[in-house]
Amino acid sequence: MTYLFENYKRAPIEFVKAEGSYLIDSEGKAYLDFSSGIGVTNLGFQPQVQQALIQQAGRIWHSPNLYLSSLQEQVAQELAGSYDYLAFFCNSGAEANEAAIKLARKATGKQGIITFQQSFHGRTFGAMAATGQDKIKEGFGDGVPHFSYAVYNDLASVEKLVNQDTAAVMLELVQGESGVRPAEAAFVKDLADFCRREEILLIVDEVQTGMGRTGQLYSFEYYGIIPDIVTLAKGLANGLPSGALLGKSSLAPAFGPGSHGSTFGGNKLAMAAALETLHIMKETGFMEEVRSKSAILLEQLQFAFQDHPKISAVRGLGMMIGIETSASLSKIVEAARQKGLIILTAGENVIRLLPPLTINREEIQQGIAILKEVFSELDE
């Protein structure tokens, strides 16, 4: 018997402890985590973040947004870096994307938002409307209007949807939930140029790709663009519920007092964790090491599976990798778990790997070895 809605298909194990890149279940078995809690614990289970939480819990863990927050200011400054961004804090990726939609509409006085087929932006009504997957919306009645869906990596399809009411174009630079599909560099540059010429806001959803996941703090840095609005969550506070919207300072008048808010957004515990997370990620050499390790992981997986009859592609960006396969995803996930490796799925036919950015080279080799075993045993 359960007292929970059964909207999640849960595996019959419970993790009760974690250390570094490993999860430990209630039976004491350790698992190498190639999921990072679906791209959340990007630093693994990091003692420095834990200590920051303990220290903050000993002071105060909640104060409403009616008062000053030096922690929010510090995190906002770290997130902005050299960019001309202001921050709004919330609790999740869906909330960050809802805020982005509201900001874009209010700042432009227009309602139309163009997103992309197979995109995923969240499960609240606005974020769900932005999502280009019908299966996410089934059974929930009429959605939020004024959304349209272009073809990913196809600028002409965007241009066809633009009209006088178009406020913004919103996209993921790697479509994660639909199969780990990176955007083409030329398409991204051309899209950014087009939006600038047409005075259309460009929103980049960095909920999964942000916070170092692709080897840069933000994936848009790979593409050489600066979006008008960026959304963050997942890895922002390394496991504490936290989301953020970053927007260019020119958009500030649209989010004046009373325009938008969040009771728990930017709470003390989440901000303490986020600040320590950012300090670690900005240490000299950290991102260079992530890029080096992610190149090893991707190249070795591509080499290992280049001739496998049930694998058609191994692709990704940074520590965000998809293995496209004709084999049963559920059987692969279960077999890997039995061998002590936690992995994810994406779309209809992709195994998704999101290891901690702090994973070491020995753990990378361990994970690759298990995956090779799993795929070699598929037909046995």
Automatic annotation (TrEMBL):
Gene Ontology MF terms in the entry: identical protein binding; N2-acetyl-L-ornithine:2-oxoglutarate 5-aminotransferase activity; pyridoxal phosphate binding
Enzymatic class: transferase
Reactions that this protein is recorded to catalyse: N(2)-acetyl-L-ornithine + 2-oxoglutarate = N-acetyl-L-glutamate 5-semialdehyde + L-glutamate
Residues that, per the record, bind pyridoxal 5'-phosphate: G93, A94, F120, D205, E206, V207, Q208, T263
Cofactor note: Binds 1 pyridoxal phosphate per subunit.
Top-rank lineage group of the source organism: Bacteria
GO terms under biological process: L-arginine biosynthetic process
Gene3D superfamilies, per database record: Aspartate Aminotransferase, domain 1, Type I PLP-dependent aspartate aminotransferase-like (Major domain)
Cofactor(s) needed: pyridoxal 5'-phosphate
Modified residues (N6-(pyridoxal phosphate)lysine): K234
Sequence positions that bind N(2)-acetyl-L-ornithine: R123, S262
This protein's pathway: Amino-acid biosynthesis; L-arginine biosynthesis; N(2)-acetyl-L-ornithine from L-glutamate: step 4/4
Keywords for the protein's UniProt record, in alphabetical order: Amino-acid biosynthesis, Aminotransferase, Arginine biosynthesis, Cytoplasm, Pyridoxal phosphate, Transferase
InterPro entries assigned: AcOrn/SuccOrn_fam (IPR004636), Aminotrans_3 (IPR005814), Aminotrans_3_PPA_site (IPR049704), Class-III_PLP-dep_AT (IPR050103), PyrdxlP-dep_Trfase (IPR015424), PyrdxlP-dep_Trfase_major (IPR015421), PyrdxlP-dep_Trfase_small (IPR015422)
Amino-acid biosynthesis keyword on record: yes
Gene Ontology cellular-component annotations: cytoplasm
Localization per record: Cytoplasm
PANTHER family for the chain: ACETYLORNITHINE AMINOTRANSFERASE, MITOCHONDRIAL (PTHR11986:SF79), AMINOTRANSFERASE CLASS III (PTHR11986)
NCBIfam families assigned: argD (TIGR00707), PRK01278.1 (NF002325), PRK02936.1 (NF002797), PRK04260.1 (NF003273)
Family: Belongs to the class-III pyridoxal-phosphate-dependent aminotransferase family. ArgD subfamily.
Listed name of the protein: Acetylornithine aminotransferase
Annotated source species: Streptococcus sanguinis (strain SK36)
Gene designation: argD
